[in-house]
């Protein structure tokens, strides 16, 4: 709340300060005031329409409100302004996937990891998307890429185990479930999968 007051005070002094509008939007989003955050981001964009981060931030709020077409449009605008903004490509993929545009989502996730080959979450999203359309070998490879970046993330091992199990590779699936449990002993889903 203090941050909101500070940004509002800055905007009283200079109402055309785009960064203050953007930063206010970030704080409002964190406070769950999504409509106000959208308004703040839109004011920032009206002042500085070429700020890719603000378009990305606006997309995130639209996505949270399930306004997927608006989210996709915002993310597309962000990457058109800044083509190397991996986060916006990942977010675009998430929104496209929610909007049943799975092939487009895969392209967006691939673009995110081509920009940042250490983008752990984008690899997880890519792996999950490949799994969703039955491209299991690609899913396995993407989970392995994610694990190579963050070898301590139990959920990645569990999800890799599920895909390996679908491929009939039970020994490897079991090893991945066990690895997930070693990392997170109370991981119910991995215990359940191991017991199947």
Describe this structure in words.
With 196 residues, this protein is an all-alpha fold. The chain has helices spanning 2-13, 18-30, 34-47, 52-64, 68-81, 86-98, 102-115, 120-132, 136-149, 154-166, 170-183, 188-195.
Q: Give me the number of helical elements.
A: 12
Shape: elongated
Major β-sheet profile: none
SSE run: HHHHHHHHHHHH
List low-pLDDT spans.
Answer: none
What is the gyration radius calculated from CA atoms?
20 Å
User: Could you tell me the mean pLDDT?
Assistant: 95
**Could you tell me the number of beta strands?**
0
How would you sum up this structure in a few lines?
The protein is mainly α and 196 residues long. Helix content is 79%, strand content 0%. It is built from twelve helices and no strands.
